[in-house]
Design a protein that fits this description.
Largest sheet: 6 strands, mixed
Number of strands: 8
Order of helices and strands: HHEHEHEHEEEHEEHHH
Number of domains: 1
Strand order of the largest sheet: 7-6-1-3-2-8
Distance between the termini: 31 Å
CATH topology: Peptide Methionine Sulfoxide Reductase, Chain A
Shape: globular
Strand content: 15-25%
Oligomer: single chain
Number of helices: 9
CATH architecture: 2-Layer Sandwich
Helix content: 25-40%
């Protein structure tokens, strides 16, 4: 019998939830602000306009369910695939990555039309509503290097934009702490198992999704109303390779 796994493992989620109810450390100031979403300036440095019809961005910011769910609702995005980045092909599987020693982070490959939305705008959404970039090796109840905040540029131009934007946001002091996001170059992306794809859309009443991820969708709609789309682009329709 096939059993659908959840992210994080159920025992870890229950423990985190109990700690929250007991007045544990889950409601840190930065997490509370991230839950609300943060209005941040657009990047001063962005990619040059070109005639390309498609570009990809690989981003990690905690459990990939929420990051995927956010970008699936961004106008100009043509696909968002949950997966792993930072390690090698042999360890790119959920059971191994969950152990925290694979080198991988749960990541999302966002495919977008640069004629409609820029890489810099993708990063603005990533830093504003998709996750809290000040948390080191964790997001909310999820703890471990596999939940780190990381950008995996696919070009020198993306590396330049990402470095400049992190420096800009740190100077602007829009967060209570320094940005912990790392830029990791020359890293391959590996799609996650099928049961992780489109998870937020398929499981909107799952407690983890309700508490941690649905507020991100609300924040996207509130802070980026012109970029918000009601109907998400799904992997089940676009495929894993796009």
């Amino acid at each position: 019998m096939h059993m659908t796994r959840i992210c994080p493992p159920l025992s870890r989620f229950v423990a985190a939830w109990m700690a929250l109810l007991a007045g544990g450390l889950m409601l840190e100031t930065n997490q509370a602000r991230a839950q609300e979403g943060i209005e941040i300036p657009a990047p001063q440095v962005d990619e040059m306009a070109n005639a390309a019809k498609s570009e990809t961005a690989i981003l990690a910011g905690g459990c990939f369910w929420g990051v995927q769910g956010v970008f699936q609702r961004v106008d100009g995005v043509t696909n968002a695939v949950s997966g792993y980045a930072g390690g090698n092909a042999q360890t790119a599987q959920y059971e191994t990555v969950s152990g925290g020693a694979s080198g991988h982070a749960e990541a999302v490959k966002v495919t977008f039309d640069p004629r409609q939305i820029s890489y810099g705008r993708i990063l603005q959404i990533y830093f504003s509503v998709a996750h809290d970039p000040t948390q080191l090796n964790r997001q909310g109840p999820d703890v471990g290097t596999q939940y780190r905040s990381a950008i995996f540029p696919v070009s020198e131009a993306q590396t330049k934009v990402a470095k400049a934007y992190i420096a800009e946001l740190d100077r602007a002091k829009v967060y209570d702490g320094a940005i912990a996001t790392k830029i990791e170059t020359a890293r391959a992306f590996y799609p996650a198992e099928g049961y992780h794809q489109d998870y937020l859309t398929l499981n909107p009443t799952q407690p983890y999704i309700v508490y941690n991820d649905l507020p991100k969708i609300d924040n996207l709609k509130r802070l980026f109303p012109k970029l918000y789309r009601d109907d998400p682009v799904l992997v089940s329709e676009a495929g894993l390779s796009n």
